[in-house]
Amino acid sequence: MSKADSVRSQIRDYLGEKAPLTAVTLDELYKLPLITEEQRHSVRAAIYGLCAGTPVSECNKPTIYYGIRLKLNNEKQVILSLPGIPREDLQNDHKSNTKTERIIQGFQKKYGVETINYWGKSAQRRSVDQAGKGMKTAKKRDNNSCLLCNIAENISQEPVSACHIISRKTLFWAVLDEVEKRKGNIFSEEATSLLLSKLKNDELHSDPKYIVTLCLAHNNMLLKALSVSLSPQESDQETKKDDLLFEV
Question: What is this structure's pTM?
Answer without folding.
Answer: 0.76
